[in-house]
Amino acid sequence: MKRRRIIGAAVMTIGGAIAIAMAILASVVIGNYVEWANAADALSTVATITIPPMIIGALMVLAGRVVYGEWEERSPIMNASALAIRVAGFLVAFTFGSMLAFLVATGITPDDQTAAAALGIGTTAGLAMIFVGFRIRTGSGRSYLDS
After folding, report:
1. Are 76 and 145 in contact (CB under 8 A)?
2. Residue-level pLDDT at 19
3. pTM for the predicted model, two decimal places
4. CA distance 109 to 102
5. First-to-last C-alpha distance (Å) of the chain
6. Which of 34, 37, 78, 147 has an alpha carbon 20 to 30 Å from 10's alpha carbon atom?
């Protein structure tokens, strides 16, 4: 029983770290290296590199939560994992949404359609993570532990 909880917590932590690291990496690369002249190519490259690991990290967070189990009995743990999913979702949605807005501001050409679609999927995935994070946080009747 304890192994399952330890494994679930470790998978949640690693998945959250991957998702947050990719969002931070994308933000740093965009902030430091993207220029107006090469914005479309740079954004498509950043999206291609960061979106797959970010989605894998989000799926690891959800899988770790499922492995951990005890959805109703472990309300403080459930609330902490819900918070981690929401924070990762906000970072993912903000990063890829801002990249998409930047791409739209520079003008989307036919060559940029794949990057725009990938950024849209990444933004949607971040919003889905936020939704899931809000949905799994439920009260268990132990309000003194739910804070």
Report:
1. yes
2. 82
3. 0.57
4. 13
5. 25
6. 147
Q: How far apart are CA 13 and CA 9, in angstroms?
A: 6
Is pLDDT at 21 greater than 50 in this prediction? yes
What SS3 state is found at 71? coil
Kindly list the distances between the CA atom of residue 130 and the CA atoms of 11, 42, 125, 138, in Å, as whole numbers in the listed order: 19, 27, 9, 15
The closest of 112, 110, 92 to 43, measured between CA atoms, is: 112
Closest C-alpha to 129, from 121, 119, 140: 121
- 85: number of CA atoms within 13 Å, CB side? 30
The pLDDT tens digits of the residues spanning 54-98 come to 889 888 888 887 887 765 566 666 677 778 778 888 888 888 888
Query: Is residue 63 a contact partner of residue 43, using CB atoms and an 8 Å limit?
Result: no
